Amino acid sequence: MKLEFINSQTNGVFSVGNEREMLTHLGILRESTINSIVFNFGEDQIAIIDEVCYTFPGNTVLPLMANQNFRSEHPEQLMAWQFNREFYCIVDHDAEVGCVGFLFYGINNPMFIDLSEQDITNIKLTERFCKNDMQVKDRMQNEMLRTLLKRIIISVTRLAREQTTDSNLLTEDKLDLVRKFNLMLEFNFKTEHEVRFYAGALNKSPKTLSNTFALLKFPSPSKLIQNRIILEAKRYLNYTDRSAKEIAYMLGFVSPAHFSRFFRQHTGENISFFRSGTTSTKNN
């Protein structure tokens, strides 16, 4: 099943369904701006995200960015809400939904968010409204569907915040700082590898930034920078035939040797061994 709305004036695309092509993200292999919110209302199953195997538990939801490679064991048992930035740009409309740098581009990635029976009932009710409005072809259709999508994003963001850390610690100002850092990291990690750049841009000292992340029991900013660089390196190694030299310069390293040392230090493997390896496993 796939229900799709396309705005011919803006090229905005919004769809709800469980067809296999919807539930197979090609990540960097395809120029795409399609983000997904994937619901598993059934049994546990295996999901592979950027060549790492995870348990996708039943009664959970998984947010996915366009640049993540994703496939699952039983896609027909999942349900995806998908949208591109032309339909709804989460960065431009962050004041409305507050998901950027947390639900999307966040620290806990991938994030499997638990759903209660009441959560599932509410989501399926919204899905029913969406199916109805997919059939109403008038000038209000675009805005009605955007409103329903925003409802889903806000609901999932609220659940994620409740389940991530102590709500007494995760105050609005601290959450905003973390989210701004995460978004800034996503747009700058290929050229800026030092905490001081991000701290300065956020008008904080590196120590203040690190202390905030430590208080919230999140990985340190320096670790997050390293993780993001490694993730992108692995994507290029897994899904493209680019040489280590090409990848090194794409990721802002001064030399291939520097990149090789960095990769070995943070993965425990050399690049050639990693490239010839197999999918790793991680249970959640």
What's the CATH class of the largest domain, please? Answer: Mainly Beta
Count the beta strands.
11
Unreliable spans: none
The 3D shape can be described as globular
CATH architecture of the largest domain: Sandwich
Structural class based on helices, strands and sheet pairing? alpha+beta
The CATH topology of the largest domain comes to: Jelly Rolls
Tell me the series of helices and strands, N- to C-terminal.
Answer: EEEEEEEEEHEHHHHHHHHHE
Portion in strands? 15-25%
Q: Cα distance, first to last residue?
A: 28 Å
Number of domains: 2
How would a textbook summarize the main sheet? 6 strands, antiparallel
What does this structure look like?
With 284 residues, the protein is an alpha+beta fold. The protein has two domains: 2-164, Jelly Rolls, CATH 2.60.120; 172-277, Arc Repressor Mutant, subunit A (Orthogonal Bundle). It contains ten helices and eleven strands. A six-stranded antiparallel sheet has the order 1-2-9-4-7-10, with helices on one face. Strand 1 and strand 2 (12-17) form a beta hairpin. The protein is globular, with a radius of gyration of 20 Å.
Task: Give the topology.
Elements: E1 2-7, E2 12-17, E3 25-26, E4 35-40, E5 45-49, E6 52-56, E7 60-64, E8 69-72, E9 78-83, H1 94-97, E10 113-114, H2 117-134, H3 141-164, H4 172-188, H5 195-201, H6 206-215, H7 221-239, H8 244-250, H9 256-267, H10 271-275, E11 280-281
Parallel strand pairs: 6-11
Antiparallel strand pairs: 1-2, 2-9, 3-8, 4-7, 4-9, 5-6, 5-8, 7-10
